[in-house]
Amino acid sequence: MLDNPNEAILSDFMTVEYATARAHLIARGLANEEAAAEVLETIWTFNNDAAKDAWAEQAEIELRQAQEARQVAAEQEQERQQALEDELIAARKEEHQKNKAKFVPVSAAKILTIPTIISSHYAVRKLKTGDYCKLFYFTNKGLSEAKKNLLSTEPQGLILIPGADDQQMWVNADETRDSKTVITKDENLSWEEFNEAAPCMITAMKQQEWPEDRINMHISFWTALQNHRWRHATDLLKQHVLQSLREPPATRPALCHLARQRHDTRAFRP
Q1: Which residues, 6 or more positions from 228, have their beta carbon under 8 angstroms from its beta carbon?
Q2: Cβ partners under 8 Å of residue 170, min gap 6
Q3: Which residues form a coiled coil (predicted)?
Q4: Which residues on neighbouring strands pair with residue 172, listed in sequence order?
Q5: I want to staple 208 with a disulfide (CB 3.0 to 4.6 A). Which of 47, 127, 153, 246 is the partner?
Q6: What pLDDT, on the 0 to 100 scale, is given for residue 164?
Q7: Strand, coil or helix: what is 182?
Q8: Is the distance from CB of 255 to CB of 241 less than 8 angstroms?
Q9: For the chain, what is the domain count?
Q10: Could you give the CA distance from residue 153 to residue 27 in angstroms, rounded to a whole number?
């Protein structure tokens, strides 16, 4: 059925178009044309109702067929996707088997944000016992020399030294004396070398668990030196005094005497 009977319009059976049909009905015993037109209208309505039922049944069949077709298509697509996924899983499994090193789990360890300072055994022992050591050991040159000695295969001797409890203990010989490298005194370091060494030595102090107040004292002291007005002075004596202040506090009385010879009461103000 191509035309929708629900859209059909009832005809006017009193028109000339239906004159022959009315005449046949009158010949069969109907009283007049009006009665014949009513019979034709009744017949049309009966046929239209039957067509509507057939149309509804046809629409239901078509809807069911469409739903079944969509379901079949969806199942086929699901099967296709599953087949693709199975192929990918098989390919990945084969890739894992062929290239195992590529898929080794990566450790979730955090990246160090504080650099590890590897200085000489001598410098480490000095800091571990709370003694001050030369800044040279923490310059780039000093750290490079320490790394070279660390990688050396030359055997180190052992010597006996008194421990904290006056008991003798064996230690590596390079922990009790300077290395063969010529050590530059603190006051003879260039400012570039001083700026290399100071932060590295602070980090090493923290690694050796120095008290926080001692560490902060060194930070404040060296920061004051770097920011001192004599830092860029043209007077060589002032430069020498400022550089000499890099030495441990035990040397400061001599430096104060040197400053007094200059008659400068503001010598140590930043």
Answers
A1: 242, 270
A2: 158, 159, 160
A3: 56-94
A4: 158
A5: 127
A6: 55
A7: coil
A8: yes
A9: 2
A10: 134
Claim to verify: residue 23 and residue 74 sit in the same structural domain: yes
Is residue 180 in a domain? Answer: yes
Residues 236 and 226: their CA atoms lie apart, in Å, by 16
pTM for the model stands at 0.44
Kindly state the tokens that stand for 50.
């039957």
Q: pLDDT class for 56, splitting at 50, 70, 90?
A: very high
Evaluated on CA atoms 74, 79, 83, 85, the torsion sign reads: positive
For 193-210, how does the pLDDT look when each residue is reduced to its tens digit (9 = 90+)?
A: 888 888 998 998 898 888
The DSSP annotation for 32-92 comes to SHHHHHHHHHHHHHHHHHHHHHHHHHHHHHHHHHHHHHHHHHHHHHHHHHHHHHHHHHHHH
Whole-number Å distance between alpha carbons of 182 and 194: 17
Pair of tokens at residue 134: 């030369």
For residue 125, pLDDT over 60 is answered with yes
61 and 154 together in one domain: no
Burial 77-109 (b: 16+ CB within 10 A, else e): eeeeeeeeeeeeeeeeeeeeeeeeeeeeeeeee
- The confidence score (pLDDT) of residue 51 equals 93
| Among 230, 234, 218, 232, CA closest to 255 | 230
Residues 71 and 126 in one domain: no
Q: Which structural domain range is residue 166 located in?
A: 121-227
**Based on the domain organization, do 81 and 147 belong to the same domain?**
no
Compute the C-alpha angle 243/245/249, nearest 5°: 155
d(CA 58, CA 239): 107
